[in-house]
Design goal:
The complex is a heterotrimer of chains A (662), B (285) and C (441). Chain A has 662 residues and is of the alpha+beta class. Chain A is 26% helix and 27% strand. The termini of chain A are far apart. In chain A, 53% of the residues are buried. Chain B has two domains: 149 residues, NADH:ubiquinone oxidoreductase-like, 20kDa subunit (Rossmann fold, 3-Layer(aba) Sandwich); 115 residues, no CATH class. In chain B, strands 2-1-3-4-5 form a five-stranded parallel sheet, with helices on both faces. In chain B, α3 links the parallel β3 and β4. Chain B starts with 10 loop residues before the first strand and ends in a 6-residue tail after the last strand. Chain C is of the alpha+beta class and 441 residues long. Chain C has 14 helices and 16 strands. In chain C, the strands form five sheets. In chain C, strands 1-2-16-3-4 form a five-stranded mixed sheet, with helices on one face. In chain C, strands 7-8-9 form a three-stranded antiparallel sheet. In chain C, β1 and β2 form a beta hairpin. Classes of the chains: A alpha+beta (662), B alpha/beta (285), C alpha+beta (441). Chains in contact: A-B, B-C. β6 of chain B pairs antiparallel with β12 of chain C.
Chain lengths: 662, 285, 441
């Protein structure tokens, strides 16, 4: 006979809620410490409630509350013994799960030899005490971004796995709160190990995980009374009513993305100082940049990943300028990402409504006001599109050795590398590698040829890092990460005519396409290559160009901007070459690579010649640091160019192609 | 930025114009690196530190101080001819320094106010940054320069990479370090948002507002910040003007802010009479 | 150092040394010799004027503290200290005793870095025959490394208290914008303790250096405090009986502007001749207040009298003060309890605020007129080097007969060494010094 064992006297059920007396909160802290955890929780420091290491209940704020409004934060004493009678301060928990600076690897260079050793952390065991509903949501968002796809951040995974979360129900709200609108709070509903609701005499304690249940089991709690349960629910319901619904989120994605030309962007840029405080205060922002830390000799170097911001001028900079040069572009990028394209990329909101970006904006810009001005509420269902990750790559460098070098032009060299990561053997046309020398920033370089046991990289020495790479000699080593990015859609070219338009070093990422075509020549129709360069000396792969035209059955047309005495071919821009070409566009596909303006001009000429946007492909350049969609630099609308590209069809890009400041 | 023959050390000079010597001193303050630095560089001219002298040519010349007297005009042009890479160090060399505040005033009055015999004193009416006179290849900002940035620049010179002197707001460094914003948390006016980082956010870490000694960052929205100070911060136009009238006042857009907000009228005792200031503990709120 | 002989007139010879190094500032030295006797010695300062006394006009007291630091990159704290005390004296601000101790500690940091810099990097190469400490390091690497460790200990102490060693940011009227936690200071104690041992070695090392012959009866001036070695507080006293409040420097001294110099020269109003400020002056007037460790070492050297009469021996005085600053810094850290508030509130009042403190190089006097709006209406700043200038000129006359018979290069080195003995302040004194010896046969 099975009987239900009577609950031990006054004990709550496994998940609670139990009632923990105010004086017994220390027992919980002791249990967490006994578990080897460092406690991180709210504490008053210099007039502000920050999250920091705490050792006892005494360190928690006693009887204080915060008063927050755009650009202003002050503490006030209030009666009573409440320990959690305030909302969120300037610190967010990402400081521990996604620290401001993380060493990624150490590299050394000793003569020819280059070594990279990935840095692995032994993360501390932590307990977060006092996480609010919006903060649990923020942790979930970063979980989705940093370990929810096929590309993951190993450092984050390790740190996150070592955190135990004790949540707290909000008892009050600030004028800057809007979790209600974002659907993240104020009620704590999940994503915690243990949850507390503060009442006059103590706390309602609920478990949300196995670890939480084990803790609850060991706490001196009694079963909560109905009055206590209702009391706690009433408090949080009051908070919800107090906040209201300041932002209409229904249809916000589409409303916002339809307003890329709204005059308000320029207006807000008059007020915005582009200081970046909002992004670093934000608990979900995840953009990072890589810094080289080297000794004086440069022989020992570490790569350090640091919090970065899309508001900083260098964030979207590539050689020649920034893709978001105007402050208005940066504000638009931030707001449309948080409330719009974040959904496209991650299937979740980028904003949890915590209000930090409002309070901690030094000049008090309120995103709710900006959203309501730029994208006022109309009813529309947001379209959620999940982007599928393409391939997994470990976040460290493997070394490869130079076995051949070839001077292509006065400033451009092709390096043949061997001993590369075996993943490169499975690489495809159009992909790139992050290439690094110790002490220099890693750079994205297109793979210009795949070999069975290696790759070729064609590098133009434009800056110090590329010059150092272009100066590598046989037996020198270099660090590689990849292959990264997607492919030229050669499968779509099977049985079609193909037109390839490119200039200068732009031929490099297309060379593997030509290699593939030549190896399987009969699978493709007529193949035309239109290739331009500044001068005849700037034409890359001269011998191969000759061979492709004569032996391999490609229709090769060359042009130069400035001819020399030995040049007998056409002079002028590359679009002029195919303007007159005779072709049947109905079965044609086009691959284009060059500067963005050149690609725009080419795409529009091709469209005029009947090649549809869905069959015109370009490869984009952006500022890249991680190469796997985790550092944020190369974002372009709903895409990360490194992860979702770099090859896109003109149709895919739609109106963001060539638009300033996206 | 690779210099000389392979294996040869770059020949380095350190010279000064109008300045306090604090940036040169920062070189000597690299206590942990100094002996290693001299193994990688031949310091051929550095009067503050050595009696061995040279007139160049230099591979790298560090220039401290602003162009501030007639003799400086020729001297900087001559030095430029004798160096391959010219690096300006500090707020005086990169922005004209605190002495550039006289650029808004009456030079003769300045001389007469300090010296009984102003006719003995030969200074230019304006104190100007080095880059106003010759081409500058790299600059280290700050009053004084930051030792970490100095080491970074020296390392970049040795390794041939681009120095990582990041152009972002001081706020970024505050947030990374977990420093609570003094403007939001205490209502203290702070120029960190419009000032280039590099110092490690010293002033906010020490409970006060940034006074802009690293100078304006690229596209600094100084006008937007000034409007906010006046409108929301409840400060007089003169108070806001004085905020920008610091060690990099002569750098745009700070220069325009000083001019637009009344120049240095306050230095002549003009301006609205208001309550005498107070300070200390309570005044921070 | 590069002497050239320039014929000048029929019976005159002019020796010109264009640039003196390892001191700071831009100036010239002129020595006129007739019948083997120096008849004129003058030190001109050509450091470019920056008009600080005018720049501070119209500024608030806290702005002034930031601005005057920029007079000197090597002793910014001295400038901040004289200014903050001048304002606090006028406004009647009573600072917390813990804040007072922290200000002494901050000053200790500056003395440590400045004295270590001067003794080893600027001055010792003279005694040992090197062009620089860098060259000296080739033969005496360990010595230079030790010097750098001491210098770093001082600079780091300033960094803890003020954020950075050059132009620190925390000194405010009423206290500090932030005070350190105990553990921040305690963490630095071992480095200071190690440096104290190195500083003791330094006293013995400097005392063993060959001292060129030199003797004169100086008039010395410094602060003196009944209970402590003088930094921020005490009375202005002299070897011949002056005794003034630190705000009253102007009652006994005045400044004048002479043609050859961009600095104003200070002189005593009583006509009793030139006076000397700096480490030697302090050791003469306040040796009894030295930290016991420093006092014992001074006694051990037996050089107290030589420090008084021979300017070259000031390097020993500086070393004794280095020991004092390190020993006192450790004592302050051991006794430190943070103040209740880093700053006390204050209200401006119009009037004249003045104060003198002891910069590493000697007495530094500031005087500010504050108007009804709480802004500075007029300022006077008298750095130690201006006060020493007349003494330097007098001492050149004393020293010259001993050296002009030496070969030119050697004579030059000896005179430069003497100039360096005053540790002329980086931005208020003599760099690129022109030495001209005109001989009238």
């Amino acid at each position: 006979m099975v009987t239900t064992a009577p609950a031990r006297s006054g004990r709550p059920t496994a998940d609670g809620p139990g009632f923990l007396g105010r004086d017994d909160l220390g027992v919980l802290l002791d249990l967490l410490r006994d578990d080897g955890r460092t406690l991180i929780g709210p504490t008053v420091d210099d007039g502000t409630i920050v999250y920091d290491e705490i050792t006892s209940v005494e360190d928690l704020p006693h009887g204080v509350t915060d008063e927050q409004s755009p650009g202003r934060y002050r503490l006030e004493n209030r009666d009573g013994e409440r320990l959690f009678g305030y909302v969120v301060g300037p610190t967010s928990w990402k400081r521990w799960t996604f620290p401001p600076a993380v060493e990624l690897n150490r590299g050394t260079r000793d003569g020819h030899r280059v070594t990279f050793e990935a840095t692995t952390v032994k993360p501390p065991k932590l307990a977060f005490l006092g996480a609010r509903a919006c903060e649990l949501a923020a942790l979930a968002v970063q979980d989705r971004v940093l370990m929810g796809g096929e590309f993951v951040d190993p450092d984050y995974i390790l740190r996150r796995a070592n955190v135990l979360v004790v949540a707290v129900q909000c008892m009050t709200s600030a004028s800057t709160c809007f979790c209600t609108s974002m659907g993240t709070g104020p009620e704590v509903t999940g994503g915690f190990d243990l949850s507390l609701s503060e009442l006059d005499g103590g706390f309602l304690v609920t478990a949300g995980s196995t670890a939480g249940r084990e803790l609850l089991e060991r706490l001196p709690v009694r079963a909560a009374t109905a009055a206590e349960k209702y009391g706690a629910a009433a408090v949080v319901a009051g908070v919800r009513a107090q906040i209201g619904d300041p932002v209409t989120v229904d249809g916000l994605h589409d409303r916002l993305m339809a307003q890329l030309d709204h005059p308000r962007w320029a207006q807000v840029a008059e007020r915005c100082i582009t200081c970046g405080n909002c992004t670093l205060a934000c608990p979900t922002c995840f953009c990072t940049g890589i810094t080289q830390v080297t000794d004086l000799t440069g022989e020992n170097a570490a790569m350090e990943r640091r919090w970065d911001s899309c508001f900083s001028p260098g964030f979207a900079r590539v050689a020649g300028g920034s893709f978001r040069s105007r402050p208005r572009d940066r504000y638009r990028q931030w707001l449309t990402h948080k409330f719009g394209t974040w959904w496209d990329q991650f299937g979740t909101t980028g904003c949890t409504g915590c209000g930090r970006c409002i309070t901690w904006c030094p000049v008090g810009i309120d995103v709710r006001e900006e959203l309501n001005a730029i994208a006022p509420a109309i009813s529309l269902a947001p379209e959620v599109v999940l982007v599928e990750p393409v391939a997994a790559t470990p976040n460290d460098f493997v070394t490869a050795r130079v076995i051949a070098t070839k001077q292509e032009t006065p400033d451009t060299v092709t390096l043949t590398l061997t001993g590369t990561d075996p993943a490169f053997a499975r690489g495809g046309t159009g992909q790139f590698a992050m290439v690094a020398l110790p002490g220099f920033p890693p750079l994205p370089i297109s793979i210009s040829r795949f070999h069975a046991d290696g790759i070729e990289l064609t590098i133009r020495g434009a800056g110090p890092a590329t010059r150092a790479m272009a100066a590598l000699q046989i037996d020198d080593q270099v660090g590689l990460r990849g292959p990264l990015g997607n492919n030229w859609p050669l499968d779509r070219a099977v049985g079609r005519d193909l037109v390839i338009v490119t200039g200068g070093i732009g031929l490099a990422p297309l060379r593997p396409v030509i290699d593939t075509i030549i190896a399987n020549r009969r699978r493709y129709g007529d193949v035309k290559l239109f290739y331009g360069a500044r001068t005849p000396a700037d034409l890359h792969y001269r011998a191969e160009l000759e061979r492709w035209g004569t032996r391999d059955g490609l229709d090769v047309s060359l042009t130069v901007d400035r001819a020399g005495p030995e040049w007998t071919g056409p002079v002028g821009v590359v679009t002029q070459l195919f303007d007159q070409a005779v072709w049947d566009a109905s079965n044609m596909i086009a691959f284009v690579c060059g500067p963005e303006r050149m690609m725009q001009a080419t795409a529009s000429t091709l469209a005029g010649r009947g090649v549809p946007a869905s069959r015109t492909y370009v490869t984009l350049e952006r500022h890249m640091e991680c190469g796997i969609g985790l550092c944020g630099h190369c974002q372009m609308g709903k895409y990360f160019v490194c992860r979702d590209g770099p090859v896109f069809s003109i149709a895919q890009l739609g109106e963001i192609f060539g638009r300033e400041g996206i | 930025m690779q210099h000389g023959q392979v294996g040869a050390h770059p020949r380095v000079g350190v010279v000064k114009f109008a300045s306090c010597d604090g940036c040169q001193l920062t070189i000597l303050n690299l206590e942990d690196e100094l002996l290693s630095v001299v193994e990688h560089f031949d310091i051929i001219d550095f009067p503050e530190a050595t009696s061995a002298r040279s007139a160049g040519p230099y591979d790298v010349l560090f220039v401290e101080g602003s162009v501030s007297e007639p003799a400086h005009l020729e001297r900087i042009v001559e030095l430029r001819k004798r160096c391959r890479t010219l690096v300006t160090i500090g707020a005086c060399a990169t922005a004209g320094g605190i002495q550039a505040l006289r650029n808004w005033g009456d030079h003769d009055a300045f001389r007469a106010s300090v010296y009984a015999h102003p006719e003995y004193i030969h200074t230019l009416a304006k104190s100007t940054p080095i880059a106003d006179h010759v081409q500058v290849d790299a600059e280290l900002r700050g009053c004084p320069i930051d030792p970490g940035q100095l080491v970074e620049l020296l390392t970049a010179l040795v390794t041939g990479r681009r120095p990582q002197l990041i152009d972002e707001a001081v706020c970024m460094e505050c947030k990374r370090r977990g420093v609570v914003c003094v403007m939001v948390g205490k209502g203290i006016p702070c120029l960190g948002q419009v000032t280039q980082t590099g110092c490690g956010a010293i002033c906010p870490r020490f409970g006060r507002g940034c006074y802009g000694c690293f100078g304006p960052r690229e596209q600094a929205n100084a006008a937007g910040l000034a409007r906010y100070f006046e409108a929301v911060g409840d400060r007089t136009t003169e108070d806001v003007g004085r905020l920008f009238a610091g060690f990099t006042a002569y750098s745009e857009p700070f220069r325009s802010m000083v001019s637009d907000l009344g120049g240095t009228r306050w230095a002549r005792g003009e301006g609205a009479v208001e309550a005498a200031p107070a300070g200390g503990g309570d005044a921070r709120n | 150092m590069h002497g050239t002989e320039v014929p000048k007139g029929a019976d005159e010879r002019l020796y010109e040394v264009t640039e003196l190094t390892r001191v700071e500032g831009e100036g010239s030295l002129r020595l006129r010799v007739r019948d083997g006797k120096v008849v004129e010695a003058s030190l001109g300062i050509f450091e470019t004027p920056r008009y600080f006394e005018q720049i501070v006009v119209g500024r608030t007291p806290d702005e002034v503290i930031d601005i005057v630091a920029r007079i000197c990159g090597i002793c910014p704290i001295a400038y901040q200290m004289s200014a903050v005390h001048a304002f606090e004296d006028l406004f009647g601000v009573a600072i917390d005793p813990a804040v007072r101790a922290l200000r002494r500690l901050l000053y200790c940091g500056e003395w440590i870095e400045s004295h270590a810099l001067h003794i080893y990097l600027l001055h010792a190469p003279d005694f040992l025959g090197y062009e620089s400490a860098i060259a000296m390091a080739a033969d005496h690497r360990e010595t230079v490394e030790k010097a750098l460790r001491m210098k770093k200990a001082g600079n780091h102490l300033i960094g803890i208290l003020g954020g950075r060693s050059v132009h620190p940011v925390s000194v405010r009227v009423g206290g500090f914008s932030r005070v350190p936690r105990r553990r921040e200071l305690e963490a630095h104690r071992p480095a200071l303790a190690e440096s104290l041992e190195l500083a003791k070695e330094t006293v013995r090392l400097t005392a063993s250096l060959p001292m060129p012959a030199f003797a004169r009866e100086p008039r010395v001036v410094s602060l003196r405090h009944p209970d402590e070695y003088p930094y921020n507080d005490g009375r202005i006293v002299s070897s011949d009986g002056l005794d003034l409040r630190p705000s009253d420097w102007g009652e006994a001294f005045e400044e004048s502007h002479v043609e050859r110099s961009n600095a104003l020269h200070a002189r005593a109003k009583d006509g009793k001749g030139v006076y000397l400020v700096g480490p030697a002056a302090r050791v003469v007037l306040a040796a009894d207040q030295l930290h016991p460790v420093a006092r014992e070492l001074l006694a051990e050297t037996g050089m107290a009298e030589l420090i008084r009469t021979n300017i070259y021996a000031s390097i020993v005085a500086r070393a004794v003060e280095l020991v004092h600053a390190l020993a006192e810094a450790i004592d302050i850290i051991d006794a430190y309890r943070p103040p209740a508030e880093p700053m006390v509130a204050w209200t401006s009042r119009p009037g004249v605020g003045a104060w003198a403190t002891e910069a590493p190089r000697g007495l530094l006097f500031h005087r500010y007129e504050v108007d009804e709006r709480g802004r500075v209406a007029a300022a006077q700043i008298v750095p130690p080097t201006s006060q020493n200038q007349a003494a330097i000129e007098r001492d050149l006359v004393v020293a010259a007969p001993n050296v002009i018979d030496l070969p030119q290069a050697e004579a030059t080195v000896r005179l430069e060494q003497m100039i360096r003995s005053y540790d002329p302040c980086i931005s208020c004194a003599t760099h690129f010094l022109d030495l001209r010896i005109e001989e009238e046969d």
